[in-house]
Amino acid sequence: MMEHAVLERPQTEADAGAAGPIHWPHVCDDDLERYYLGLVTDESELAILEEHLLACAACVERMQETQDYVDAIRAGVIQGGFDSEPS
Ligand SMILES: [Zn+2]
């Protein structure tokens, strides 16, 4: 009923019990990417993301995957010269 758009699978009871009462949805991949790129400039959004990452090992793990992904994309853009940006 109260769920927002949760891209991750719902938490199991075991997860909730281990990490305390977490009522927020997991950080989605898009937000992790924006956070890593420094595109999250809204202070309240940033605070929520950072707070979640402090408490949620699963999202930290996914963020590391996101970092690898982003770095790969960046490397590809630099080396391959994809014309994503007209310059
Ligand atoms: Zn999470």
Reported for the largest beta sheet, the result is: none
The total of helices stands at: 4
Query: Could you give the count of β-strands?
Result: 0
Low-confidence blocks of residues: none
How would you sum up the global shape? Answer: elongated
Q: How far is it from the N-terminal to the C-terminal residue, by CA?
A: 48 Å
Strand content: under 5%
The ligands bound in this entry are: zinc ion
- What is the gyration radius calculated from CA atoms? 16 Å
What is the string of helix and strand elements? HHHH
Percent of residues in helices: 55-70%
Structural class estimated from helices and strands:
mainly alpha
Q: What kind of oligomer do you see?
A: single chain
The pLDDT mean sits at: 78
Give the topology:
Blueprint: H1 13-19, H2 29-37, H3 43-55, H4 57-80
This protein binds zinc ion.
Considering the chains and any ligands shown, give keywords for the structure.
elongated; 87 residues; binds zinc ion; 4 helices; mainly alpha
Summarize the structure.
This protein has about 90 residues and is mainly alpha-helical. The protein has helices spanning about 15-20, 30-35, 45-55, 55-80.
